[in-house]
């Protein structure tokens, strides 16, 4: 579709089926064939301490397919089901996981990501989990994720209020092991990088985000396969 086509006009057409992961695959193939400069990373992340991560599109494809296998098999997340992922960015490993989860996992598998920021507090986290009803929760084991936030997830899972079938912790330290939580790193080491993207409707949901909730309860906003791509196009064009 031409960039000049305006949303809402008769020339603006959205295909019936679309999976945004296919776009990432195409860029990865261009890298492999030398049609795209490989020194221009798909992901470039630096934290406050100077730790740096650079991924090519080929890296994103391989790592996200491994993550897709983890969440589709071990975590048993099925197309259309929701996976709650915290948004901490204080660790190198979690930054890698965030890229895999938010940029590709859910569009590859047909799963839906529900963003759970780490600074919202136990009460708001409880509210968001009850609203999104994730079957899997992924969290980071770092200073930003307080023990009380893990406690909220465990309490909801044990109470049966939400059918949380699996809980995964990223960058788990030995002294921070928690019963019922799986290690992302351990699963990632043996996960297969062979995964076929699902055939998704353009209208299929891919991500759920929340308003700030400053004047009341936070409200959910949903992205589809198509709107996720169109949003990225808008950012590229106008920001």
From TrEMBL:
Which molecular-function annotations from GO does this UniProt entry contain?
ATP binding; fatty-acyl-CoA synthase activity; medium-chain fatty acid-CoA ligase activity
Provide the E.C. number(s) assigned to this enzyme: 6.2.1.2
Swiss-Prot/TrEMBL catalytic activity: a medium-chain fatty acid + ATP + CoA = a medium-chain fatty acyl-CoA + AMP + diphosphate
What InterPro entries has UniProt attached to this entry?
AMP-binding_CS, AMP-dep_synth/lig_dom, ANL_N_sf, Mitochondrial_ACSM
The alphabetical list of record keywords is: ATP-binding, Ligase, Nucleotide-binding
Q: Name one GO biological process term.
A: acyl-CoA metabolic process
* Family under the similarity heading: Belongs to the ATP-dependent AMP-binding enzyme family.
Report the protein name in the record. medium-chain acyl-CoA ligase
